[in-house]
Design a protein that fits this description.
Family: Belongs to the xylose isomerase family.
Distance between the termini: 42 Å
Number of helices: 17
Number of strands: 14
Organism: Gracilinema caldarium (strain ATCC 51460 / DSM 7334 / H1) (Treponema caldarium)
GO molecular function, one term: magnesium ion binding
Protein name: Xylose isomerase
Helix content: 40-55%
CATH topology of the largest domain: TIM Barrel
Structural class: alpha/beta
Subunit structure: Homotetramer.
């Protein structure tokens, strides 16, 4: 097998396989901390981190924003005779990039890899034609599909939602798209299938039957799950929480909201969370909080690895660069045994004024290095055991005696209330937040 994939044309000439060169390297096209074969706690970094490249940002985005046209050249578009040929060229560019980077997985929306047709049947035909070509490239390179999904937000027909649209005809179009995307994911051996409700919400409650829309969404997901299982799909379904944008309010607001929704419709055994850092920020939460909440509920699945800008109130989808944030993220993930499904998908795009082909590599390299650092810091924290010991001691009153009986449900409320007389005045025990924050900085610095 070649060191990296190149189709009929090399789209990133002059850039070879990205290697690990260590923290003293001055080479911008080399890993400083991510050494894929390095063992951390019995598994390699590659096995722990399960990096994926987001097809939409990396190969569909061209720097266009609401104020201006695209700034980034996409050479795979330049010599295509028609959209389908362009889709195959883009596929070659994607697999060249992914294999040069050394990522193990990729993720896509249906409309990322194949153009929409004039009818649902034509759209499905286009998709499965490109899927067959993607399958060939997966076999040639060993790159795998982490998860697939359907774009139920770009087409104008979805302006009022997809599964929650007040027009039943639109709901049927959404189902046709999801059915085809599920079939594509199965054909490519995808390990998961993701739902993101970009327009599953409302712009105004004055024209919205909120109860009915949420029930329609629940029914839609139950039907999609049952269809996928009937087709032999054994992977995990993900919901990706986000509070708003493009809708004023999305029904998948945050992890707690989605957890309640899944339980309401009996989906909690099949679905997990795909948690995005930038979406957590938009919901008013820390990335660490959303990960911890999903872990506590037994619903953690996968991660869209990016970051937002705290000064901008929208989804900036920047590459993750904070070692502090990645260390806390990996601490949560390692505490629950690491990824059993999913991985770290770089749902991030280079900035509009980053116009060199190498910029896309450098952005991914930085993100992969950041999570490699986070992995090692989190592993040291767990091995050292100081945080775990402190937390255990803080809750020690529930480990024996009346506290243990309370936790086990062996106490009536009046008995619990009566114990206050026995305990009398209660002292104050420090939470030691500042000490623990200082300790985290020590781990980050490797001290």
């Amino acid at each position: 097998m070649a060191e990296y994939f190149v189709g009929n044309k090399e789209y990133f000439p002059g850039i070879g396989k990205i290697k690990y060169e260590g923290p003293k390297s001055d080479n911008p096209l080399a890993f400083k901390y991510y050494d894929p074969d390095k063992k951390v706690g019995g598994k390699t970094m590659k096995e722990h981190l399960r990096f994926a490249v987001a097809y939409w940002h990396s190969f569909c985005g061209d720097g266009t924003d609401m104020f201006g046209a695209g700034t980034q050249k996409q050479p795979w578009k330049q010599d295509a005779k028609d959209p389908m040929e362009g889709a195959e060229h883009k596929l070659d560019a994607a697999f060249e990039f992914i294999t040069k980077l050394g990522a193990e997985f990729y993720c896509f929306h249906d409309r990322d890899i194949a153009p929409e047709g004039a009818t649902p049947a034509e759209s499905e035909k286009n998709l499965m034609t490109i899927v067959a070509k993607a399958k060939e490239r997966q076999k040639a390179t060993g790159v795998k599909l982490l998860w697939g999904t359907a774009n139920l937000f770009s087409n104008p027909r979805f302006m009022n939602g997809a599964a929650t649209n007040p027009d039943f005809a639109v709901v049927s179009h959404a189902a046709a798209q999801v059915k085809a995307a599920i079939d594509a994911t199965i054909e490519l051996g995808g390990q998961g299938y993701t739902f993101w409700g970009g327009r599953e919400g409302y712009m105004s409650l004055l024209n919205t039957d909120l109860k009915r829309e949420k029930e329609h969404l629940g029914r839609f997901l139950v039907m999609a799950r049952d269809y996928a299982r009937s087709r032999g799909f054994t992977g995990v379904f993900y919901i990706e929480p986000k509070p708003m944008e493009p809708s004023k309010h999305q029904y998948d607001f945050d992890v707690e909201t989605v957890a309640g929704f899944l339980k309401q419709f009996g989906l909690e055994k099949d679905f997990r969370m795909n948690i995005e850092a930038n979406h957590a920020e938009l919901a008013g939460h820390d990335f660490h909080h959303e990960l911890e909440t999903a872990a506590a509920l037994g619903l953690f699945g996968s991660v869209d690895a990016n970051r937002g800008d705290p000064r901008n109130g929208w989804d900036t989808d920047q590459f993750p660069m904070s070692y502090y944030e990645t260390s806390l993220a990996m601490l949560t993930i390692l505490k629950i045994g690491g990824f059993t499904t999913g991985g770290l998908n770089f749902d991030a795009h280079i900035r509009r004024n980053s116009v060199d082909p190498s910029d896309l590599f450098e952005a991914h390299i930085g993100g992969m290095d950041a999570f490699a650092v986070g992995l090692e810091v989190a592993h040291r924290i767990i091995q050292d055991g100081k945080y775990a010991a402190f937390v255990k001691q803080r809750y020690a009153s529930f480990d024996a005696g009346d506290g243990a009986r309370f936790e086990k449900g062996q106490m009536k409320f009046e008995e619990l209330a009566g114990l206050a007389k026995e305990y009398g005045s209660v002292g104050f025990t420090s939470g030691k937040q500042e000490r623990l924050e200082n300790l985290l900085n020590q781990y980050l610095l490797g001290l």
